[in-house]
Amino acid sequence: MSAVTDAGAEREIDLGRWKQAIVDRWWIVAVGVVAGIVAGALFSLSGGSVWEASALVAPGQPFTPSGSPILSYQSSPRSIDVLVTSESALKRAAAAAHIPVSKIRGHVSTQSVSTGLGSSASRGANLIRVTAQLSRPKHAEDVANALGAIVIADTTSPYVKKSIATYQSKEKRYNAQLTSLTRVIDSYNKALSTQHLGFLPKLIMVNQLDAAIARQGTLNDKLAATDQQLTLVQNVEIAQLIERASAVKTTARSRRNSVLVGALIGLIAGLIAAVVVDLRARRST
Fold it and tell me: Which of 154, 140, 139 has the alpha carbon at shortest distance from 109?
């Protein structure tokens, strides 16, 4: 029991001495921190400079005919990251930028950007930043824009493409019917204004004209609804390139992270140095 107590007291004395040593020789700790910050800053500069370009993509969000969102891997940020960093996508992007694919492996990434709208599963909840870091600005821009185009092309589902074709076919059919119906209405109006008709034939023609005009109104309503649905598909359900990439010069290493790590290492080294100097000073006296 006495040995345990003595050991605990000894540890308390050692900790107390170390604390006092750090307080007495605070300048050693300060020098260590400053030296670490300087070393971290120099380290960040040693990596050279690169050009970073980011294309901003809005993933598409398909909807059912009733208006409910369809949850699909094609709008998942994780799936888009896998697509962008796949060997096939890298080769296509390298070909578009006219550079070897080896130059872009490991130099492209994606980041999900929350817009704060809706849930993570809903359209508008996320944007995807597709980034390329390369030694030349044009190469970085070309690769990022090419990868953005790949995301748009490869994440547009057959369901959405079929919806577009269906709505376009409906619009074409409604417009053809309206064109034909307009000619019929014009002929009725011309007949009523230029021909001398009896009461009964005139009444029949007026009724036919009213029916044609009512049909015209119905077709216009259907055309407007179809156009609205087509606009929704083309502007919401399909992925879009919101912003093309524009290269900016940056350091290969993060200066902020390098400085923080350097300061932490300098702090630890300073604390150790302060304790060691104190121990040596006590032994020499």
Answer: 140
